[in-house]
Design a protein that fits this description.
alpha+beta; Helix Hairpins; Immunoglobulin-like; 2 domains; five-stranded mixed beta sheet; 10 strands; elongated
Amino acid sequence: MRVWYLLLALMAPNAMAAWEVNMRQGVTEISHAVYDLHMTIFWVCVAIGVVVFGVMFYSIYHHRKSRGAVSDDFHESTKLEIVWTAIPFAILVVMAIPATQVLVQMYDASDSDIDIKVMGYQWKWSYEYLGQDLGNGENLAYFSNLATPRQEVYNESEKNPNYLLEVDEPLVIPANKKVRFLISANDVIHAFWVPDFAVKKDAIPGFINEAWTNVPEPGIYRGQCAELCGEAHGYMPIVVKVVPEDEYVAWVENKRQQVAAARGITPTVASK
């Protein structure tokens, strides 16, 4: 009976709704490049599997004992050793070329338009916009905390579609601008992960990692901490709000005014 219950559960619409087995394509040029590389390597592996298992099953079927097959009596073949070493080596070299190209592109965080320092805490994120001085030598910075109501966490109310993926203060960046993230942590190792951007970097105390993105379309994009960082690891989501450039400029100025007022600072003119 348990088998039937398992089959029914697999056939249920709710069970199939989350049946995602492939990598997300994402929305950025880098995320598309990563997805294309993933699919290329996948099909190369499929082709290798078909050839290897095809030869194996062919040999098992056509050289079985019931057909009178007798195994050859030899110890080794230098030529065969060279062939089955050279072919995999050549395949690996060919696969390494596009992989290296994508990695070089991913690690090139130079010539950024905006620099944002991302700091992981137990269990929240802080964002500091470098170059956006409040007037006292401090940059515009704020914390981003989980906004999912505790009633949903404790099953006291219905969970919304973005359960555990809501924050009180999202990270705001402009569309069509190269944004560099300087990622670190205050306490333990975290990981800054936004799947739609193909951005995933460890946040390590005392060390700064670089990542970057350039999002072509405005929208809301969600991520999570991807490194087990303690009791509330599952409660530190990432929400990135991508807006048009003019809206971003207005948001930065308004946010600077708010943060400066809260700290009793007279803000300077916004940096370009």
